[in-house]
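pasting input
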Amino acid sequence: MSTDCDIMRAMHAIEVSGLVKRYGALVAVDGISFTVERGEVFGLLGPNGAGKTTTVEVIEGLRKLDDGTVRVLDTDVVRNSKEIKQRIGIQLQTSSLFESLTAREVLDLFGSFYRKKLPADELISLLNLQEKRNSLVKNLSGGQQQRLSVALALVNDPEVVFLDEPTTGLDPQARRALWEVIEHLKRRDRAILLTTHQMEEAERLCDRVAIIDHGHILAMGKPRDLVKSNFEEVAIEFEADGRIDLGSLKGLEGVSNIREEEGVVTVYTKEAQGTLAVLLSSAAKGEWQMDNMRVRVATLEDVFLKLTGRRIRE
Amino acid sequence: MKVTLNLVVANLKEVFRNKAILFWTFVFPVIFILLFGLAFAHDDISKFNVGIVNQDQGTSGEQLAKALSSVPVFTVTNGDWDKEKTALEKGDRRILAVIRPDFTERLAKGDAELEVYYDASQPMVSQTALSVFREVVAKMVQETTRTKQPLRAVEKPIQSKHIRTIDFLVPGILGMTIMQLGLFAAIPLVSLREKKVLRRLSATPLKRSSLVVSQIIFRLLLGVIQTFIIIFVGRLVFGVQVEGNWAYLLVAVVVGAMSFLSIGFVAASFAKNEQTAEPMIQVVSMPMMFLSGVFFPIEMMPDFIQPLIKVLPLTYLNDALRQIVNQGHSIESVATDLAILGAWLVAGLAVSFKTFRWE
């Protein structure tokens, strides 16, 4: 008897439910649940030590979990990690692998670990490494090594791809090229779990994101929805000298929050017009000095800041 | 198995593309042999100790002894037969000339014999000394008699199985090289762990056993290549012969390499990172290098340190290699050595199996 429930479950590429992972007394992951679908890019955002790496490692079958269940491609990763490894691809941030092999040789070597493999040449051109195919890994630039590590993650044409800050160290052009690769994978119905520090990247690439801190998911959803649900406000940002009275600004109508960091003030307000008028007139009166003012809609970065009290890089 | 071989090939490619590794693996042991070989081959050649036993009652014996004493490269000692023969056997004399009681008489008849004993275990040195000796004798004969060839030297080798310094050193350096091959395998392993390559590999379907087996095969291949190079250089440059069977030699090398490799795995298990692995291995390898008879026989070591020497694995590898290379012994006579190395291998594997961290 096939129930609806089974069919639903079969549709998830990744299904994490009540995941708990402890290191001694420290609870690194404290009951996380989420799903990732085929053809979806899912982003895990969180500061260092938030538990995102541990979460990913448990899903990859590299770590044992203490509680909860993790299913990848409808298979229990704890019991069947061997089988799962054939069907997933993992990119790690720091993998200076086999430095005296050429890019091609490393791809061939890794390909030989799998039953199913993509031709090395195809991966080389997908990641735009044609000119470097016969260069030793140690002679590749940081960005080229990074692209090679992504190519290695795709060597078995995986159904689920884990990418750990894949665009770190890439120049803007290479970053956009890699985004296209990820979008290409998405169109081919692959599920992609991405961890990133770059909010712009998350907003651009991710269908959904989860913001993790202290082992909990603080918020989860489409980036735009997260911003909308957390912020009716716009952000007014400017540089101010010491004479500004932040306390009095708090009392203004529509102002929900004010942050100051290294002389840059961000005022979150629902009444952009009114707040701006007050700010501009008091600055115009010479009560304090205002520079480089801009008004922007709130971003994922603001959501992160609001929820965790920290910037993601801190 | 295919995957294991791919990994072995990948490791070999890395070695042969890396000049620093190539140097330390293959060139360094050769330099070691050349340096030691030249140092020990050289010191004997400029000066020869010559013993003379003059039993002659006539004057010709006296004359010959004087002529020999005047040769600059000869340091002549006169003595009786027993004393001089003992000195030759101990290596204190290169050649020993015995002038018979009837020497003057027979020389006058044109039929004299001079017995010349020499150290056959040092062919290079002895032959040089003998050629000088012959020259002196021929000159003396020409001056004192008109007769052609009234005297001939009868050369009699003794001490047929004396081991030269270089014969002793080559298997010792081979043992040291194999030890280092195994122990220093820890460093790339620790580095693979530190750079998260091991973690990356464990995210693939690659079996850990394939990885371990590939490391062992790869190191053993290096060890075999090192053995061929060291033995070849020893033979070509210093005439060091492998008296025993090559197969036995390779068996000893493989067993030795595996036990040192297992000790290297233990080091890799305990070392936090490359920086701590390096001194850790030095601490293990240095004492063995000096205590286990690489450069001098273990018998020369003081008594109080003998118990330590008797547990070090290199002691047994060196003993096995010397028995096979120098004495031509077969595998049965090194069975104890191999058994003790095997015990180290099992112990090392057991400990590293329990303690090795993959990340």
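fyi Chain B has 15 helices and five strands.
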